[in-house]
Amino acid sequence: MGNVHVLDHPLIQHKLSFIRDRNTGTKEFRELVDEVAMLMAFEITRDLPLEETTIETPVTTTTTKVLAGKKIGLVPILRAGLGMVDGMLKLIPAAKVGHVGLYRDPETLKPVEYYIKLPSDIHERELIVIDPMLATGGSANDAIQSLKNRGAKNIRLMCLIAAPEGVEVIKEHHPDVDIYLAALDEKLDDHAYIVPGLGDAGDRLFGTK
Ligand code: PRP
Ligand code: URA
Hints:
alpha/beta; 9-stranded mixed beta sheet; two-stranded antiparallel sheet; 6 helices; binds uracil
């Protein structure tokens, strides 16, 4: 069963408070999301396997450790997932980046896929699907299914904020996927917005609306 990890590092929690604040403007919002994504990348990669290597320091020959195992692929869900990519690339600069374009139909609340472009070797990579918001779970659920349909085998989901409803959807349909969050919020409102949440992540990142 996929685990849910709430990343409670004080810096993540502190910055998330300002991200949530309605008085935080687009520039600062974008910068904070970038910083939190970087901090979350640090936590989410904690269990990556290492292997020993031998190197020469200026003083002697020694055995040290380097990353082993699968290479990483980042898959932001457009649009809002884009806001977290650069922060993650600061720590994982060699990661390849795929894109899944989805929007949530405001009437039906169902996700509509309009774009997908992925690295050709996704089946060999540890993929991290990125979206700031996991609300009903429809968008992340579809994105993960799209990746699996194209051969992806190892997938993690990283979001800033989730509602319990969205977490349950992913656990039910993708029990193999671990979920990493900065916060697990209380509920969804009548428009399927996360409460207390941060509002519309895409609009706040890109200054639309
Ligand atoms: C938002 C958010 C998620 C989705 C979450 O995207 O970025 O992708 O809603 O909702 P769900 O869990 O109920 O599917 P939105 O549809 O607003 O598109 P945008 O990122 O292009 O603004
Ligand atoms: N999408 C958002 O951007 N915010 C929410 O609260 C729910 C879905």
